[in-house]
Every structure is written in C-alpha cells, then in structure tokens.
Amino acid sequence: MEPVTAADAGGGWRGWREAAEAALYGPGGFYRRPEGPAGHFRTSVHASPLFAAAVARLLCRVDEALGRPAVLDFVDMAAGRGELVTGVLAALPADVAARARAHAVEVAARPAGLDPRVEWRGEPPEGITGLLFANEWLDNVPVEIAEVDGAGVPRRVLVRADGTERLGEPVSGAEAEWLARWWPPAAEEGLRAEIGLPRDRAWAAATGTLARGLAVAVDYAHTAGARPPFGTLTAFREGRETTPVPDGSCDLTAHVALDACAAATALPGARLLSQREALHALGLSGARPPLSLASTDPAGYVRALAAAGEAAELTAPGGLGDFGWLVQPVGIADVRDLFVDVADDEEH
Ligand SMILES: C[S@@+](CC[C@H](N)C(=O)[O-])C[C@H]1O[C@@H](n2cnc3c(N)ncnc32)[C@H](O)[C@@H]1O
Does the reported pTM lie above 0.85? Predict the structure, then answer.
C-alpha cells in the first residue's frame, strides 16, 4: 500500500478510529439501529441464559466478599438491549435481589419494556460497590490501525467510507509508545497492529468507578508474544462475517489486548482467565447427564442435555470458551476466592 499524498487530503480519508466511531456510534450509526447487536451476531449472553446465571453467581460471590453490603451494584457495561442485566436479575436469589441496584450503560436508547428496576444510562455511575461486567465492549471501542510500509515504518492506516485504505503519516507520540510497549510490529512490509490506547483509557475509566468490588472485561483477546501479525479487524452483518467498511452498515470489531488494559488501571491483583476456566469455576459444566436419568426422568434428562449443549458452546475450545476474562478486584483480597473450582466450592 502506498502512503497517502497531500493531493488526497480532503478526499474523505480518516484514521480507522475516527471512521469507526462515526460508523458505529454517530447519528444513524450501526449501534443506534433498532435491531440491536443480537440482529447481527450472537454473544455469550444471547447463546444461553446459563451465561447470565453464571454472572449472577459471580455477583453473589462478590457480595459475600464485600460482607453483604446494604446496596449491591451490578453494572452491565455496554449493555446492548439489556439482555445480560435482565438475566442476572432473574437469576439472583431473593435476598440478594432485594439489595441489588442494576445499571445498564449503553450508547443506544433504553429498550421498551425493560425491567423498571434497571437504571439505563450513558456513563457508568461513580463510586459503586459490587460488580462491573463488560461483555464484548472493548472490541467495539474504535482504535487506530498501523501498517508497516516498505521502509519498515509503521504508519496510520487511513480509510474512506467505502472501505478503501491508504497509508497515512508515521505513528507518533503516545500511539507510538503504546505500539513499542504492547505490539511492536517487525519491520516487514504489510504487517499490522491495532493500537489499543483508547481501550486502555476506556477500561481504566470504567474500573475507576468502582469503590469496592470487581471489574470484569470479557472479549476476544490476545496477549504480548501472541499478537496476530496482520491484526484482527473484521465486520459482521446479519450473522455473517464481512469486509470491514465504515459506512454504518456493519459491526466493526478487533480483538482486545487485555494485558494492556489490565496494566492501564494500575490495580493490583488482576487475573486473566479463559472463559472456559472462568465458567467452570462458576459452576458451569458441559458434561452430559447420566444416561440412567433418561429412564427415571425423561423430561429432566432432555432439559439437562440441552443445558449441557449450551454450556459446551459457552466453553468450547476454538469458540466462546477461548474468550479472555480480565478480572480486576478493588478492595477484595484475592479474586481466587471468587473463581474457586466447582468441586472445591461444593466441599465448603
Ligand atoms: C458487541 S455489543 C455487546 C452487547 C452486550 N454486552 C452483549 O454481550 O450481548 C457492544 C455494545 O457496546 C455498546 N457500547 C460501545 N461503546 C460504549 C460506551 N462507551 N458506552 C456504552 N456502551 C457502549 C454498543 O452500543 C453495543 O451495544
């Protein structure tokens, strides 16, 4: 790809960050459309109610770790149409639900018919005590993309509304520092990196709203040493993966450098788990029910079989099970107590 020249200025070329910001969240943007994310792709939340039940279980464990406060906050960060917060409220035991205060943070408007207990807002509330949970938020926080030119220099990738790309100026300043620390591309023409700085800042701000409790970011993730050499920018429309075009017609997403996000908060005690590990520790198992149940309780067997299938999807290697769970405690001694092995949990 050739660098953009002065003659191209004003030809609608923008960095991917600005272009994606407008395409996803601007007037008429993709995420403001009435069908919501579920009209275009399936997250863990849509895959099975077992996911919300596991998050509710985590909220109960946070509640215990906090000494059962009078008000227990649950923040569904980047809530889509409020599916997760609705599922969590439904799965909480009555004594916890009675103390729970539910917040959904979203760019899009409050959906009609949402549980009136859910407070719908554009920014997370300050000073919360409880659990802030962000499922597939950070991958939708737009980032700049760098591509190495023929001289081995990483340059900003510029894009037009039709998806045509050119190279812009060399990456500099804080973005160059981020690349050098977290994703230094080799000096090989065509290699790409996604500059996660806006995600680090977004995550640091979100975790900064916690007075005490736990912040969890769940996303497609990669860590230093295993970055994808050509980046991960892609798009989804009506259930299909498609070419990324910043025209508001599709989701634009790129995997998240969760290790960089963790470091940006400067909070001690962060852990990075796979979704498989996290959900197993929260009591989800993809194990099939014993065949003997089929003769003693056929309906129960069918239900258990369906649940096992859903749990298997949520924890599948090569699929949702490989998602990263960045877990960051604030004022909780050790998050290992929250993610205890199921067998251990049942013994205590
Ligand atoms: C991939 S969807 C995930 C929705 C939901 N969490 C789920 O897992 O089904 C990403 C959502 O993040 C929202 N979003 C992105 N940036 C946001 C921000 N800064 N504040 C609130 N919501 C945001 C989008 O509007 C979109 O609904």
Answer: yes
Residues 243 and 249: their CA atoms lie apart, in Å, by 11
- Verify that 183 and 134 share a domain, yes or no: no
The reply to whether 158 and 213 lie within a common domain is no
Specify the residue for token string 């997370």: 124
63 in helix, strand or coil? Answer: helix
Phi, psi for residue 68 in degrees, rounded to 5? 50, 70
Residue 266 shares a structural domain with residue 320: yes
Query: Residue ranges of the chain with pLDDT lower than 70?
Result: 1-10, 341-348
- Which residues touch 325 (CB under 8 Å, ≥6 apart)? 216, 217, 218, 272, 273, 274, 275, 277, 278
Q: How many domains does the chain have?
A: 2
Average pLDDT, the chain: 93
- pLDDT score recorded for residue 341: 67
* 201-257 pLDDT tens trace: 999 999 999 999 999 999 999 999 999 999 999 999 988 999 999 999 999 999 999
Instruction: Tell how far the Cα of 37 is from the centroid of ligand 1, in angstroms.
Output: 8
pLDDT at 7: 42
Shared domain for 178 and 278, answered yes or no, is no
| Pocket of ligand 1 from Cβ distances under 6 Å | 31, 37, 43, 45-46, 78-80, 83-84, 105-108, 135-137, 140
- Spatial contact of 83 and 46, defined as CB atoms under 8 Å apart: yes
Nearest-atom index, ligand 1, CA of 37: 2
The residue nearest atom 14 of ligand 1, judged by CA position, is 78
Residue 36 in any domain: the answer is no
Task: Tell me the residue range of the domain where 250 lies.
Answer: 42-141+197-347
Residue 286 CB neighbour total at 10 angstroms? 18
Give the residue, by CA position, lying nearest to ligand 1 atom 21: 106
Alpha-carbon distance of 186 to 55, in angstroms, equals: 40
Q: What is the CA radius of gyration of the chain?
A: 21
- DSSP classification of residue 235: E
- Do 83 and 121 lie in one domain? The reply is yes
Look at residue 286 in the predicted model and tell me its pLDDT: 80
